[in-house]
């Protein structure tokens, strides 16, 4: 006689390695055992991709509070400007009023063209339509062996 690891009932195992009394208990046991691992995988834990914590609080929120000189409200969101959530340098952190503003920051139509002095929103490759078309023409000329000067 063995004791089921899931329901604690005694049972006669059909194999010497059986740990569960039924398929249902086996599925529940495996589910419980792997739930933590699956949750950690979804949250990026254990791979060096999650937010660092200091005394149980996210480090970037603590640094943001030090920058603005007050506690953050529950609705305020801390945005990592370069997109690297491990880079908690004060110059890389922006405090946004709510999650909607944070989503707009991440939405591509709100990004600004990366060419110096241009303030238009970008279309592709971090450039506005004007600079992107110049870049594409240059790529076509370069692939054909022509000279390109900007």
Task: Map the helices and strands.
Elements: E1 2-3, E2 10-11, H1 23-43, E3 53-54, E4 57-58, H2 59-68, E5 77-80, E6 93-96, H3 99-106, H4 129-144
Antiparallel strand pairs: 1-2, 3-4, 5-6
Task: Give a quick set of tags describing it.
150 residues; two-stranded antiparallel sheet; 4 helices; alpha+beta; elongated; single chain
Strand count: 6
Q: Give me the number of helical elements.
A: 4
Report the end-to-end length measured between terminal Cα atoms.
Answer: 83 Å
Question: Which class of secondary structure composition applies to the elements?
Answer: alpha+beta
Protein architecture, described:
With 150 residues, the protein is an alpha+beta fold. The protein is 37% helix and 11% strand. It has a two-stranded antiparallel sheet. The chain starts with a strand and ends in a 6-residue tail after the last helix. The model has no long low-confidence stretch (mean pLDDT 81).
């Amino acid at each position: 006689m063995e004791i089921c690891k899931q329901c604690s009932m005694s049972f006669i195992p059909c194999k010497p390695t059986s740990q569960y009394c039924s398929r249902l208990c086996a599925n529940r046991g495996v589910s419980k055992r792997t739930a933590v691992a699956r949750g950690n995988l979804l949250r990026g834990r254990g791979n060096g991709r999650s937010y660092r914590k200091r005394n149980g609080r996210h480090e970037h929120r603590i640094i943001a509070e030090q920058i603005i000189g007050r506690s953050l409200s529950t609705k305020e969101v801390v945005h990592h400007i370069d997109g690297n959530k491990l880079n908690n340098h004060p110059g890389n952190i922006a405090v946004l009023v709510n999650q909607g503003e944070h989503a707009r920051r991440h939405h591509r139509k709100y990004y600004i063209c990366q060419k110096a002095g241009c303030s238009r929103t970008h279309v592709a490759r971090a450039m506005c339509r004007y600079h992107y078309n110049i870049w594409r023409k240059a790529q076509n000329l370069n692939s054909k062996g022509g000279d390109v000067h900007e």
